[in-house]
Amino acid sequence: MAEEKSLNFIEEIIDTHLREGVYSSIVTRFPPEPNGYLHIGHASSICLNFGLTKRFPGYTNLRFDDTNPVTEDTEYVESIKEDVRWLGFEWKHERYASDYFDQLYAFALTLIEKGLAYVDDLTAEEIANQKGTPTEPGVNSPYRTRSVEENRDLFIRMKNGEFADGAKTLRAKIDMGHINMLMRDPILYRIKHAHHHRTGDAWCIYPMYDFAHGQSDSIEQITHSICTMEFVPHRELYDWLITQLAIYPSHQYEFARRNINYTVTSKRKLLQLVQDKKVAGWDDPRMPTISGLRRRGYTPESIREFCDRIGVAKRDNLVDVGLLEFCVREHLNRIALRRMVVFDPVKVVLTNYQGEEWLSSENNPEDPTAGQRQIPFSREIYIEREDFMENPPKKYFRLAPGQLVRLKSAYIIRCEEVIKDQQGAISEIRCTYIPESKSGSDTSGISVKGTLHWVSVPHAVKAEVRLYDRLFNVEDPTDESQDFMHYLNPASLEVLPQVMAEPSLLDINPGDRYQFVRKGYFVLDKDSQSSHLVFNKTVGLKDGWTPSKG
RNA sequence: UGACCCAUGGUGUAACGGUAGCACUACAGAUUUUGGUUCUGUCUGUUAAGGUUCGAAUCCUUAUGGGUCAACCA
Fold first, then answer.
1. What is the largest CA-CA distance in chain A?
2. Which bases along strand B come within 7 Å of a protein CB atom?
3. Which CATH number fits domain A9-255: 3.90.1150.10, 2.60.40.10, 2.30.40.10, 3.40.50.620?
4. Fewest CB within 10 angstroms: A6, A78, A113, A179, which?
5. What percent of chain A is helix, strand and coil (3-state, nearest 5)?
């Protein structure tokens, strides 16, 4: 029996509701605004909302909160749907706040009839000035006392396009002295003569978030409307509108958004990175977007596991990106096939070896069913320049003059001689191999501490490798002591234009993931062509050794 | 100088008045044809002060610290 995992506070609320019969099943929703790409922070919300209805009876809707036509676009709708599906979730209904524009308009009229909303002629600036501050009450608008008839007439004319953008708004009539600033006659509708990605030019007035979100929840009979903590003060208005309209009582619950160090998760900041060309696009592998992580080689399983491990709570947090990396390593270690690639090659000549042969090597030592592959071996091979030292420290297990080392899945070799060019750089290492040490049939009786990856020179396939590092140099780029752009890591991308790869890598497809032995996990990028392979580094292997520790 | 939210190792998260646990990180050791993986072990924590109670991380009070709120954004 698997150990019972403890519930997070939201699961506990739902568990109680179900046990006490408040609900017999639940409905949740994931409500993105289609004005940007989904990022790792959204993944938490997606896993939470969809995860809830996997654990408990009920279903989850995907609802686009598309009430601001000037920032929204179908490009984002498509990317969001792709990302949610890629993460492994399927929604029950695909809905849009714009589906409800007629209903919302009717709700507004209801409020007007009840004397709970009025048309205001004040400008944005005037409204702001009369709003007061958190410690001082606001003042009433001079238009606050208009009659129901006048309000109805004006609002209909707003809808009919008789007024210019910004000329009028519809406001709830609540209390300009309310301690909660959101209750100080919040704007419900504004005029925007803008083309909407779904409703086209049918409307020139659009509801504000507070007059769309809760009502949409109610229309869909969402039982548990889950959002982040900054919406806590909105809950009072959310409840007020539902009460006044006497519609299905959805309820809002808040959890703390997940922050991750060395990156930013704000659509505005991510958009700025894209627009300022600091990255190659929304799906740049350095971006914390779902599409960026996908291109980086992350698996949906690893992201779900990450979201599961960081949990759900109400306190502020800054999650270590190292945990995300742990999760992807854990998964990739199980599924990624092993391949050998030499990044910074130096030639090794085996002076006592003639001809060539094909050697067998396991595809994945963690998974026997992954089988074996054949690798060509010959008299001249490449090894990593950093795997040789002329004057090694004490516990250096790699190649050094007179030292023995195993070539992975091949033979044990001994370094006999070092050849240098005129500048003194090592141009070639001469070794002898031990014929009876062949991998799988070793009768040499020799044991060595180090094993190196290698690639046969005449069979080597050239490829490009893109090495990624954290996008920012500091844990919290949003600390606001400086603009976050100042913290950009100038070395977040390093391109290796020509690495040497084993030939089995020639026949693979974009999205295929591998472990390059002793290097890390890599994925074939979509920029690849059959004549030019491009690999993205997903994450390195955990590195337990550094020269200083030797 | 208002209201609201929050406070458990370096990080994230449990403990629902009854032994502060798990994971990541770090460190040490074993195994290893990847200095990977795997296995074992070690370090580190209830913001503070009062109160209630046989007993408090948990309930109450105050303080302290952090966050949020004054977009015709969501």
1. 102
2. 1-8, 10-16, 23-26, 33-38, 66-74
3. 3.40.50.620
4. A6
5. 30, 25, 45
Domain A341-453 in this protein, CATH class = mainly beta
Q: Can you give the pTM of this predicted structure? A: 0.96
ipTM: 0.97
Structure token pair of residue A472? 């920012």
B1 nearest neighbour residue (CA to C1'): A135
Tokens, residue A37: 């790409």
Active site residues of A: 33, 257, 267
Report d(CA A178, CA A175) in Å as an integer. Answer: 5
Give the Cα separation of A440 and A247 in Å (integer): 73
Q: What percent of chain A has pLDDT over 90?
A: 96
Residues of chain A with CATH 1.10.1160.10: 267-337+463-539
Q: CATH says A267-337+463-539 is which class?
A: mainly alpha
Q: Which amino acid is at A248?
A: Y
Tokens found for residue A203: 């409307």
The distance (Å) linking the CA of A2 with the C1' of B46 is 29
For residue A90, the SS3 value is: coil
Express each pLDDT in A58-75 by its tens digit: 999 999 999 999 999 999
